[in-house]
Amino acid sequence: MSFYESVFVNVGIMIIIAQGVYVITGLTGLFSLGQSSFVAVGAYTAGFLATRFEMHPLLCILAGIVVSILVSFIIGIPSLRLRHVYFSLATIAYCYALQAILTVSETFGGSIGLVGVPVVTRWWHVVLGVVATVWIVRNFKLSRFGLACLSVRTDELAARTYGIQTFVSKQIAFSLASAISGLAGGLLAFNLGYLSPDMFTVPVSSEYLIMVFFGGLYSQTGAVLGAAALTVLMELLRTTAAWRMIAYSTIILIIILVRPNGLFGTWEFSLDSLNPRRRAKHGLAKGGEGV
Amino acid sequence: MNTSTDTMLEVKDLSKQFGGLVAVDHMCFSVDPQQIVGIIGPNGAGKTTVFNLISGIIPPTSGKILLDGNCITSQSCHQVAMLGMRRTFQEIHLFRGLTVLQNVKSAAYRQMDYSLVDALLWSRRLRSEERAITELAMELLDRFDLAGTAHERADSLPYGMQKRLEIVKAIVSSPKVLLLDEPAAGLNPGETIELMELIHKIREEMDMTILIIEHSMEVIEGICDNVIVMNFGKKLAEGSWEEVQTNEEVIRCYLGVD
Ligand SMILES: Nc1ncnc2c1ncn2[C@@H]1O[C@H](COP(=O)(O)OP(=O)(O)OP(=O)(O)O)[C@@H](O)[C@H]1O
Ligand SMILES: [Mg+2]
Predict the structure, then answer these.
(1) Which fold has domain A3-282?
(2) ipTM of the predicted structure?
(3) Residue range A41-59, pLDDT digits in tens
(4) Given CB 3.0 to 4.6 Å as the disulfide criterion, which of A11, A196, A254, B206 pairs with A113?
(5) Interatomic CA distance for residues A242 and A245, integer angstroms
(6) Do A162 and B76 touch (CB under 8 A)?
(7) CA–CA separation, B4 vs B226, rounded Å?
(8) What residues of chain A, 14 to 73, have a C-beta less than 8 Å from chain B?
């Protein structure tokens, strides 16, 4: 695989991850600092099945998604009842817990990690994953379930008076976000060929959040482009070695200071927005949903 | 007397204590279908608390609430909503940042029942249900003079329109019982008259039972079939506006202050 292809694959995986973060944080307003755990669950499940049972990569990735959903369901039951910063603290807690489990577990290679996963992810796999994810998230967002998430984010009490079950809405969004993270994890496993617990830490989760903030927390378009831009930026700065993190942080700080709502704010790209008559017909928002 | 069919809402011996404060004290009343009942009383009398209890936002300390024969006393807010109750709040609770149309559609969440799979795959079923709800929402917005604002952000509307939008959101799923908490507060005289016409229209055209908390006696006199007066959590008087208006205790505790 060429250098460019590997950058491309990286960007694609990051876009997928950012879509998950967008669903849980942008749409639903829950600040998850544990999204990397679900990437880890997807990656380790896929990697484990591939190395131990030599299953077909596609099956491994699907299994990763399913396990990710199951885990999110179980974790969601206690943590989604928490509000605001308490939820974030819970996500940090399970992120550390999962890391600890992976580090001590011999089945998953302990702190050395899981090695020998076949490197088979190609650029078109990632393109397929990105297109499917973006499409599904867009559908979710425009459906009644997405609208329920937006209502819950904006005014939970009012949402309940319209018969919206806030816990269920959060659980659905959380599971969808985890499924997406699981998919990204699977692709990651077959891209890198090895996995280790320190690839899925809380700081890594924060980087995901930064990508989405950078593009505009309330814009799906922003999440896609924010993730792409920052991942490419990171690759470009690779040559500057030690200066890399400083340059990266400076650029992010400047953008956030100049545009507090992220590059795209609440703006959404849509084919309909090119044609005002269709937009009115479908009742799509002028500025998308906002802050 | 206690048959459920001819009473839409029945409140029996309802009490709510906040620590040492008895906010609602053994309230009893019942509301017939399609009645408009006003609840009045001085600030802090416990009117809003009665609404919070009826709509399931907070549980009562004791007592019983029946909605169209169903006991809703210990039900949560969304369960009560699903049985056909909607309310507005004293202070505006719109989904800020969402458009007017999105606001109405999210209030109609329960009117749609396509599945999550339909949603993720943008199925034909979803499209037809969404289209129907959008049409319903636009029709309602049109009837209440908000159609032109459908794609504006809800919080960018003038105050009077925001209050009207709250009511449109509350009636979009044709509830059996509608609770309005001070709908006329902050409206100018012209808007107040429009509001009274709107409430009449809702009752006539949509067969709704309406409870309304108001400090504007003009509204109470103009639209209520029956008035309940509250003071210190207790029911002070009940009857038609003519009866209540001349009740000496009511004049002493509430009306005299005006
Ligand atoms: N959640 C709560 N916790 C503690 N006390 C409360 C709570 N809600 C209301 N109260 C108290 O209960 C009493 C009744 O309040 P309520 O809001 O029902 O009055 P109200 O009749 O609606 O008054 P207003 O006309 O000013 O709206 C007040 O003394 C209020 O401070
Ligand atoms: Mg009140």
Answers:
(1) ABC transporter involved in vitamin B12 uptake, BtuC (1.10.3470)
(2) 0.91
(3) 999 999 999 999 989 999 9
(4) A196
(5) 7
(6) no
(7) 19
(8) none
